[in-house]
């Protein structure tokens, strides 16, 4: 199946007042990939914490993003820019922050995903 990654997806400015409908409009689900889903997202701000039962692949298409990873020992920040890729290990709490905005492609688990608004989820 052929997929074009240059899509006009509205940018979500993440804030406490964002609705589920607005969040979904800033993402485009492209296709299933084994037990995962491939999609595009366009946002600025800080996402909630999330973790997945499989590794998550991220490729930055436009802009910059910090991926914040929570380990038992410390918090790690990986700064990514256009053209770079990153794999978030399975079962690790992480969130993303982009002050100017980012467009990225993700491949993540279809099932078993969790999100948290806590400061440091367990």
UniProtKB/TrEMBL annotation:
Pfam families: Cupin_2
Organism this protein belongs to: Dulcicalothrix desertica PCC 7102
UniProt cross-references to InterPro entries, sorted A to Z: Cupin_2, RmlC-like_jellyroll, RmlC_Cupin_sf
Superkingdom of this protein's organism: Bacteria
Ranges of residues in domain Cupin type-2: 46-96
The protein's name: Cupin type-2 domain-containing protein
């Amino acid at each position: 199946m052929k997929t074009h990654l240059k899509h006009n997806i509205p940018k979500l400015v993440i804030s406490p007042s964002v609705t589920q409908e607005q969040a979904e409009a800033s993402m485009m689900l492209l296709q299933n990939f084994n037990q995962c889903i491939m999609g595009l997202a366009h946002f600025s701000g800080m996402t909630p914490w999330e973790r997945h039962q499989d590794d998550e692949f991220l490729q930055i298409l436009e802009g910059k993003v910090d991926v914040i990873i929570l380990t038992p020992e410390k918090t790690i920040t990986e700064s990514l820019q256009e053209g770079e890729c990153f794999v978030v290990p399975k079962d690790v709490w992480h969130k993303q922050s982009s002050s100017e905005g980012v467009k990225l492609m993700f491949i993540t688990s279809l099932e078993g995903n969790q999100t948290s608004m806590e400061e440091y989820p367990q």
